Amino acid sequence: MLIYLKSTIAHLSLNIHRVLFPSLEENSFRTFGGLILNARVGVLTDQSKTFKSFLILFAFIFIAFPVLSQDGEKTSVELSQQVINPTTLAWQLQLEEFAIFDTEGQDGFAQNFRIRGILPLQKGPLLPFPQLIRVIAFINTAPGGPTGLGDITLNQFWIFMKKDWGQFGAGWNLQIPTATDLELGSPQWQFGPALTITFTDIGNWQMYWIIQNFFSVSKNDEYGKTQYAVLQPNIFYTWANGIYAGIEPLWQIDYQTGKVAIPLNFRVGYVWAGKLKHNAYIEPEVMAYRSEGYTRNLNNFGIRFGFRWYLPMK
Length: 314
Fold this sequence. Notes:
Structural class: alpha+beta
CATH class of the largest domain: Mainly Beta
Largest sheet: 15 strands, antiparallel
Distance between the termini: 48 Å
CATH topology of the largest domain: Porin
Radius of gyration: 20 Å
Oligomer: single chain
């Protein structure tokens, strides 16, 4: 299985390389991909079939869809930045698979499959500001354990200020304990405020920050209080051909203990336009630092594969 998976990924990487980086040496690219696989993937178990299937799907999406959409709107830096900006008012469907190969203190393959729908409103019924409502659901697999539904999260952002330099917004998060197993989510309802600030007037660069807070409001006597924040720094550089690269990690801090988890990732993606606008990406992630005893994020290494559809508001 390992040989087959390495061959599949090498073939996919080579095709992406031919389309996006025709000037690079094929042998050096193949060697670089092999080093990454030998260093990180290792011998995969049967539980990694989900990852392999998603990898094949991602190859089709990443390579075939842009070819089918060649007669659509030409990709530009401005278009790409609009698509990857989380505060853009657009109807969106986002699918993301996070294949986790190394979990702290646990054996076995794990994964999180995220489905996120985004509903834009020009003006809300209570506050007369543009807003985004996000509905996020997960199908998770615990390391070597069960697969099932994870928690569902709702969040809402109002865009209170939009200037030439960027935007500022605020809102709330609600995490609903819908997980079918304690290994797949939290048993507590959680609620908290959120803030976002976006800087867009910096040429091909784009930077935005999102901070979300979660405070448990149920079963505190049984499971203890949950009080933590998630800070997401996003920094991307976009080329005119639709390719972009950057970081988008989720950093966590526990308000009660001060303990943190600081992963680092690197995303390479491609934006193109047909009747809809599309965004496909791959994003390896490693845990750069985790406080001793912090258990909310035990992922040491994984790879995200994502695909998103956008339909801008008229």
